[in-house]
């Protein structure tokens, strides 16, 4: 009886073990099958969750420079704007309203940042650096354009060389990338004490030249080739002095960045897509730029090359130009205080 009981116990334990093993195999197989069929859904869910974690404010306020008072951005951001995805991509993260503000020059844009009426600014390196040096709470999120030319223009019967400017008046937009070029150029030529530099917006330059109020005007892209087309002459260009070429920068306010740390990547992803597209569709882009700026297409083509818009946010050439501009402004006392480039870049 005891022997039979022992055998029964062994049999029961063995049967139980077999049953447990079968159950484990079944569960494992079902789990594997379930995991295989549900994996894509889990990935899609995590992507949606990642998007859901980024929530931008409902209104985005963007400032940019338009010497002709046009309402359309003209760089790669303008391309993305015209194609609709500048807004559609950011709407995925909660933005519902886009406000665009155009300014005649950089210092005016800085004033708007100071007043708290902008979140993002796209403008020249000199006003952006001067603003930061003066305490403007901005962070650099990309170098949008590099190697921007300047044309120092005079009347056909006016000065022919830089030396001819001695004792005369010249003009440009104060606080702009053109002003940095002009002041640097005069210093290089030893003329900084013999030439008076006046503040004048590009739109007013031609009339001042025609009246003889000034001997030359330092024009930005667009305006420079346009005025040359009318018969004026360039006695110098920034392209002859590679260190004096300008850059266009994009900044975001520190308050906006602190509340929305993912914004720089979202913005730069849109911009990179736009740059790739305009490189593949340069003729269409030149026409779009012409329509947005009011300049003829041939003037737009004479103003810049497509590769002046880098795909990456911080190209080495751009960083070198920005740092050189900052150094000049600080050395000349034009920027209130120095700061490191690294501390300015949004991390």
Automatic annotation (TrEMBL):
Domain SsuA/THI5-like stretches: 104-262
Signal peptide extent: 1-32
PROSITE patterns: PROKAR_LIPOPROTEIN (PS51257)
Listed InterPro entries: SsuA/THI5 (IPR015168)
TM spans (from-to): none
Key words of the record: Signal
Claim: Signal is one of the keywords in the record: yes
Keyword Signal applies: yes
Name of the protein: Aliphatic sulfonate ABC transporter substrate-binding protein
